[in-house]
Design brief:
The structure holds 2 protein chains of 2 kinds.
Chain A: H1 9-14, E1 23-25, E2 30-32, E3 53-56, H2 61-71, E4 77-80, H3 90-96, E5 101-104, E6 118-121, E7 140-146, E8 152-158, H4 159-162, E9 177-180, H5 187-198, E10 202-204, H6 212-221, E11 226-229, H7 231-238, E12 250-253, H8 260-269, E13 274-281, E14 285-290, E15 297-298, E16 303-304, E17 308-313, E18 316-321, E19 327-329, E20 343-352, E21 355-361, E22 366-368, E23 371-373, H9 375-382, E24 388-398, E25 402-411, H10 422-436, E26 445-448
Parallel strand pairs in A: 1-10, 3-4, 3-5, 4-7, 5-6, 9-10, 9-11, 11-12, 12-13, 25-26
Antiparallel strand pairs in A: 1-2, 7-8, 8-19, 13-14, 15-21, 16-17, 17-18, 18-20, 20-21, 22-23, 24-25
Chain B: H1 3-17, H2 38-52, H3 56-59, H4 70-85
């Protein structure tokens, strides 16, 4: 089955191939996918959202999933907001997406939300009602990804681009139960949601408020067979006494560099499972999967396959395929693809004996447990401290979150005689950052250094990648 | 300061810095039930590498199991510190 033939999730659900026994499980609720054919999680109000640009801002992934299934093919545009979107950015997202409607599972009161917007409540239960399915719209799917300015970028996909890498497994196999540590409103999680939905598998959703041990126990109780997460998700799981409750056949890593250590540890914990790491980004889509259990990927993967073209230019990986996003939304949206249709991932590669390894980001973005940190924004905060003359923020490799942020700081000349120990000052700068930045952006360590290298253009010499 | 007391002091320091409530620490307490999350442990590993000069996660090799309890975690540092001193 070709994904491009699918007009909407609803068509898949009402088609002949969907297994009657596949379920969607949240923490408190579960539903058979097929039950959605006979009712509505939106209280039967889906038709009010026809042709609109709809922001889906639910707390729970479960209600978001129900809304996506109901509104794909109905709404003009669906904007997926993850739970951790700061409330202050909702207005920016709505404006950039020209949103005229919102779906949530709770009342959101914010002065930023335009009053004219249509608000529809989404419940975890199915009640009678539904949309007219004779009229179909090709819905745009919009994902958020963090931008350099601290404001999210809005990335436009279609069901076809998102589902481009999903293949049907042959009939007669054992039923699959997927799960993912990801939020399904992030690219990596959405891939798993669609994979489960489009291949008639069940899916166990994670929940931001649930601890790792509880999630693993729930996934284990649902007999999860296929499970995905970032290397950081997996490192956290490896620290949990509940890890042994999982017995997957397939383990997938994506979203961050998978180093040899995490791949080897997963292999030794799950000797029976196939362990893959995939390279994908919100903008570039899924490029390839690596199945040989080794970090990096064979140089032979670069080039042209049936559906993806990859090349390395100026040291970074470029991708052209039908799975890439089409554009960014918003007033100051840059171009997402170059003239030839390639997306520059910004991920820098190093070739070592016929194998490419990811060595970091061109723009120096630091990935702390799957969350992006732009060094400049941390430096801007540190530089506001009265004792600081300049600072340079960089990544430091970490066995738990992949990287942590560290700062090298040059102090200004002492303005008074107050003898403050270096240690006190380091604490003070950390505390200062803690008050002004989200936790993952606060440096793990502040090093006081005599000077920082500056390049010929007078800019801080960053040693990226 | 012994390795153990240094690690325990960092548990308290991280709980304070990240506004988290620390559970009463005991050797058999699972790390993720201590009140600290993986970001706290990431920071702790970085600081312990600075103060003790060891990172047992790296030293133990690629397929060594991750510590699961507070006791495992402290022991990993004690062992790595002792090995490094040899």
């Amino acid at each position: 089955m070709q994904p491009s033939r699918w007009t909407s999730l609803w068509d898949v659900l009402s088609g002949p191939v969907n297994a009657p026994n596949s379920f969607l499980w949240g923490v408190e609720a579960g539903v058979a996918f097929r039950d959605l054919l006979y009712g509505s999680a939106l209280g039967g109000r889906g038709e009010e959202l026809r042709g609109r640009s709809v922001v889906i801002a639910t707390k729970d992934q479960f209600t978001a999933a129900l809304a996506l299934i109901e509104l794909d093919g109905v709404a003009r545009r669906l904007v997926l907001c993850p739970t951790d979107l700061p409330p202050g950015q909702l207005g920016f997202v709505m404006e950039s997406a020209a949103a005229d409607a919102m779906v949530s599972d709770r009342t959101i009161e914010s002065p930023e939300i335009p009053r004219a917007a249509c608000f529809v409540l989404c419940k975890p239960t199915i009640s009678p009602g539904g949309c007219n399915r004779n009229e179909r719209t090709r819905t745009e799917w919009v994902l958020l990804t963090s931008g350099t300015t601290g404001r999210p970028k809005l990335v436009v996909h279609t069901l076809a681009s998102l589902a481009g890498a999903i293949e049907h497994h042959g009939p007669g196999g054992k039923p699959r139960v997927w799960s993912t540590f990801y939020d399904i409103r992030r690219y990596g999680g959405l891939q798993i949601f669609l994979r489960a939905f489009l291949t008639s598998a069940s899916l166990v959703l994670s929940n931001a408020e649930e601890g790792t041990a509880d999630f693993l126990a729930r996934a284990g109780a649902c007999a999860v067979t296929h499970i995905s997460g970032t290397p950081s998700h997996w490192r956290r799981a490896l620290m949990s006494p509940s890890m042994h409750l999982l017995a997957p056949q397939y383990v997938r890593l994506s979203g961050e560099i998978a180093d040899q250590s995490i791949l080897s540890r997963l292999r030794s914990v799950f000797p029976e499972a196939k362990v893959d790491h995939a390279f994908a980004s919100t903008e570039a889509g899924l490029a390839f999967e690596v199945s040989d259990g080794l970090a990096g990927f064979p140089a032979a993967l670069i080039g042209r396959s049936s559906d993806v073209e990859t090349k390395v230019e100026d040291g970074s990986l470029r991708i052209r395929s039908s799975r890439t996003a089409s554009c960014y939304l918003g007033r100051s949206a840059n171009s997402l693809r170059d003239a030839e249709g390639f997306v520059d991932t910004g991920d820098m590669l190093e070739l070592k004996s016929d194998r490419y390894y990811f060595v970091g980001r061109r723009d120096g973005t630091i990935n702390v447990g799957g969350l992006k940190v732009h060094p400049e924004e941390v430096e801007a905060v540190i530089n506001r401290h009265p004792r600081v003359e300049m600072s340079c923020v960089r990544a430091r490799k970490n066995p738990i979150t992949g990287s942590v942020v560290v700062a090298d700081v040059v102090l200004g000349k002492k303005s008074d005689a107050a003898a403050q120990s270096e240690e006190d000052l380091q604490h003070e700068i950390l505390h200062f950052c803690g008050n002004l930045l989200p936790r993952h952006k606060v440096p793990a360590a502040v090093n006081i250094v005599p000077a920082l290298p500056v390049d010929a253009a007078g800019k801080l010499a960053r040693n990226h990648a | 300061m012994s390795v153990r007391s240094e690690v325990i002091a960092l548990f308290q320091q991280l709980a304070e810095e990240h506004n988290r409530e620390l559970a009463p620490l005991a050797d058999d307490l699972p790390l993720l039930e201590s009140g600290l999350d993986s970001l706290c442990f990431a920071v702790m590993v970085a600081r312990l590498e600075d103060s003790l000069g060891v990172d047992p996660f790296v030293a133990a090799g690629d397929d060594a199991p991750f510590p699961v309890t507070v006791g495992d975690f402290i022991k990993a540092y004690e062992d790595a510190y002792e090995d490094a001193a040899k």
